[in-house]
Amino acid sequence: NLGSEPAGTNDAIVVNGDLSPGGSPIYVLPLAPLGTGSYPLLTYTGSKSGSFDPVVRGVSQLRQSLSLDETGTPQQVNLVVAGLPAGLVWNAVGSTNWDIGSSFNWMDEVTFLPEQYYQGDRVRFDDAPGVLTTVHLDGPVMPGAVTVAAETNAFVFSGPGGIGGALTFTKAGTNVLTVSVTNSYAGSTIISNGTV
Fold it and tell me: Does residue 126 contact residue 133 with C-beta atoms inside 8 Å?
C-alpha cells in the first residue's frame, strides 16, 4: 500500500534473509496519482542474487513513468515515479469521448494547448463556450480529481464506462449534472452547488 507521496506512510515487504527475485515481475496498481520520487517496496537483511523483471506491470495509460531501482539503496528495492499528472479542462468540440490517450478533447489548464487524458490526470468541466456537454465514457477512467463547475453548461456523463480510483468528485456551479454511468471511486463527493 503506497501513499501519495514518497515520504508518507508506505507498506513495504520485509525479507528477513537473502533475496533471489529470479526475474519475477512486480505489479503496481495505483488507485490515485503517486507523487514524484522513490517509494520503498521491499527490504532484505541478507544478500541479493539476480534481479526482478525491469518492467513494472499493472500500470498503463499513465502520464507518469514507473521503474524499479534495485541498486540505489543497499538492501532495498524502490519504485521510482517520474513525471506528474496534468490538470485538464474539458474542451471537446467534435467528439464526446472521455477516453484514455486517444481523443484531444481536453485543454491543459496551464499551457491552454489541446491535450489527451491519461489515468491520474485532474479534470475539470466548466463553462467553456461551445464545448459539447455530453461526455461519453468509453471505459473505466481513474482521474486524480473531478470538478464540475458550470453555471451555464449542463453536463451529462453517459456510456458503458465509469469513474474509479481514489479521488474527490466536486460539483460546484448552479447548473445540473446528470450522471448516467456506474462509478466505483473511493473518496469524497462534494456537492457545493447545483443539482446532481
Answer: no
Q: What percent of the chain has pLDDT over 70?
A: 93
Nearest partner of 147 among 100, 196, 182, 110, judged by Cα:
196
Give residue-wise pLDDT tens across range 12-46: 889 999 999 999 999 987 777 788 899 899 999 99
Non-local (6+) Cβ contacts of 190 within 8 A are: 168, 169, 170, 171
Full-prediction pTM beyond 0.90? no
* Local structure of residue 34 (DSSP, 8 states): P
Distance separating alpha carbons of residues 171 and 189, to the nearest angstrom: 8
Class of residue 66 by CB neighbours under 10 A (exposed 0-12, middle 13-18, buried 19+) = buried
Q: Which ranges of the chain does DSSP label H, i.e. alpha helix?
A: none
**Rounded to whole angstroms, how far apart are CA atoms 3 and 12?**
11
Query: 95-131 pLDDT, tens per residue?
Result: 999 999 999 999 999 999 999 999 999 999 999 999 9
Spatial separation of the C-alpha atoms in residues 32 and 119, rounded to whole Å: 9
